[in-house]
Amino acid sequence: PSPGGDDLPYVFSGTLVVRGRGLARVLATGARSEFGKIGTALAHIDTEPPRLQRQTRQIVRLFATLGTATALAATLLYGSLRGSWTEAFLAGIALGMSMLPEEFPVVLAVFMAMGAWRISRARVLTRRAAAIETLGSATVLCTDKTGTLTENRMRVVALRRPDGEAWTREDEASILPEPFRALAECARLASADDPFDPMELAFHELERRCPEPVTADLTPIGEYGLRPELLAVTRVWRSARGETLVAAKGAPEAIATLCRMDEAARAALLAQVEAMAEEGLRVLALARAQGSAGPLPENPRAFAFSFVGLAGLADPLRPGVPEAVAQCRSAGVRVVMITGDYPTTARAIARAAGIAADEVMTGEEL
Which residues neighbour 334 within 8 Å (Cβ) at sequence distance 6 or greater? Predict the structure, then answer.
């Protein structure tokens, strides 16, 4: 059977696994995969002619129609008035040929060549003129944030304990103070062992600031992935002494739910998150719990979590982004940033990039 569908044990190349784990056997690679077939189809797609060429073709048709009509009228008048239809036919052909715009294709070719030359001076290689024309008529540019405007290199630059005490990264070699090592340990225990996500890589780097590895005598025994109704990742570990440790990291609202915070505590937490987000930081909350020796529950809400603190991660802007945004604005192009970050964080990054951040629209509002 062909891949696809909820009832078939197949996945496409490029599939994003958002929950759980699995083992897959590769059946096709490259152009033979379903993903590769899409690329092959796109390589053979018919290119659209440039808009200038289409408009020129319309003008040529218009002039050709007028010239043909004028030539026919001249032929009929000449023949009926002078009686020589041969001379009338030749006069009509001469008049029609004189009215045909033969120069338009030449002018079009010269203009396209001059445009490609001018674009090449800006170090842009033009393959299709239609793409340049489309770019020239653009009025709004929508861009992703992470990895596009920013470098996608996360670093934990701030930690905040429940009592409000804060730590800020000052250099790359300092050891993490003792009061904040519990946050680093919790963040590491809630992260994958072999990470590829930039945020989890940042938490692994934070662990190296502790004197001893956090997972020295721990073995992972379970994991609860992200869910639409609970945006948090929970991992369960067991120590050599038989103790069960549970660590969770995720959106502050989700961690507040896991910790069963009341309205006052939740409001205080969100106020701290807002203060960190105004500095352009992506903020994650951390929580931990003590598990039992029995089987794991089906839902992480069954654990009695306690709030550990907040971690603020920074993703620096790429060099040249403010200048590029300024060039777009000077060309009359409005730049819109699209991101899944916290609104306050997104607003701070947008302001640093030179993007108008007066209005922020969330996904629910959209």
Answer: 139, 140, 141, 328, 356
Phi, psi (degrees; rounded to nearest 5) at 94: -65, -40
Q: Per DSSP, what are the bridge partners of residue 89?
A: none
Which SS3 state, helix, strand or coil, does residue 289 take?
strand
Helices of type H across the chain: 34-43, 51-82, 85-99, 103-121, 129-136, 181-189, 198-207, 252-258, 263-277, 321-330, 343-353
Instruction: Count Cα atoms within 13 angstroms, Cβ side, for 226.
Output: 10
How would you class 51 by CB atoms within 10 Å of its CB: exposed for 0-12, middle for 13-18, buried for 19 or more? middle
Token pair 């020239």 in the structure block, residue: 136
Q: What is the pLDDT of residues 158-177, one digit of tens each?
A: 999 998 899 988 766 667 88
pTM metric for this prediction: 0.65
CB-count exposure of residue 330 (10 Å: 0-12, 13-18, 19+): exposed
- Rounded average pLDDT over 215-242: 87
pLDDT at 269: 93
Q: Specify burial of residue 323 (Cβ count, 10 A radius: 0-12, 13-18, 19+).
A: exposed
